[in-house]
Design a protein that fits this description.
Length: 213
């Protein structure tokens, strides 16, 4: 069983994907953390995120330790991740790892949940279930702002940087963010995590195949 969970930043897909994986006994891969780790490596090497050679080298040199870096979740890391993610060579370097994880999940799990932007469209186009999780831009910015707590910049700035990141992720030529034609669309704007989980669980269990929540 392979479940693809795609969607824009702060739509709730990470929390949802983690919870679905635990519920269905599946392994979980946050593919955004791979792009974040590449972005951090590029910055720490003193290179520019738009430097294709440096970004591809960073992607090919990724180690498990890179994926536990505390800086991974920082807002600035999300922005640089979105820049390196626009480069086809970076995406190509990370593709096989994601496919291997899905096909041969660790610790004997009987399948996997992968969350990202292009799981249902490019990484695993034949995934058993595909969810596209979204929410209004205002609600996503508000959630991210609340998450950042005391460190949060003004809400308007979070809205602006999120809109920039959405634009970059949607408009790039390589594997842009978009729902797979056969994805189940889950709009979480008016749903709390329990309600979003219930809708996703019903879809994965086959109880709701209508295409939207
Ligand atoms: O999900 P996230 O916010 O951690 O992702 C960070 C960036 O990585 C996101 O803005 C675009 C990129 N990304 C991607 O291009 N493809 C993926 N499958 C996952 C993330």
């Amino acid at each position: 069983m392979i479940v693809a969970v795609d969607g824009p930043a702060a739509a709730g897909k990470g929390t949802l994907a983690r919870r679905l994986a635990a519920h269905f006994g599946l392994a979980y891969l946050d593919t955004g953390s791979l792009y974040r780790a590449v972005g951090l490596r590029v910055l720490r090497a003193g290179a520019n995120p738009d430097d294709t050679v440096a970004a591809e080298a960073a992607a090919r040199g990724l180690t498990p330790a890179d994926l536990t870096d505390p800086e991974l979740r920082a807002e600035a890391t999300g922005a640089v991740a979105s820049k390196v993610a626009a480069q086809p060579a970076v995406r190509a370097a990370l593709l096989q790892f994601q496919r291997d994880f899905a096909r041969n999940p660790p610790a004997g799990a009987k399948g996997a949940v992968l969350d990202g932007r292009d799981i249902g469209t490019v990484v695993i186009p034949d995934a058993d279930r595909k969810l596209f999780v979204t929410a209004s831009p205002e609600e996503r910015a508000r959630r991210r702002w609340a998450e950042l707590g005391a460190k949060a910049p003004p809400l308007a700035e979070v809205e602006r940087t999120m809109a920039e990141r959405d634009r970059r992720d949607q408009e790039r030529a390589a594997a842009p963010l978009k729902p797979a034609p056969d994805a189940f669309l889950l709009d979480t704007s008016d749903l709390d995590i329990d309600a979003a989980f219930a809708a996703a669980k019903a879809y994965i269990s086959g109880a709701n195949t209508s295409g939207t929540n």
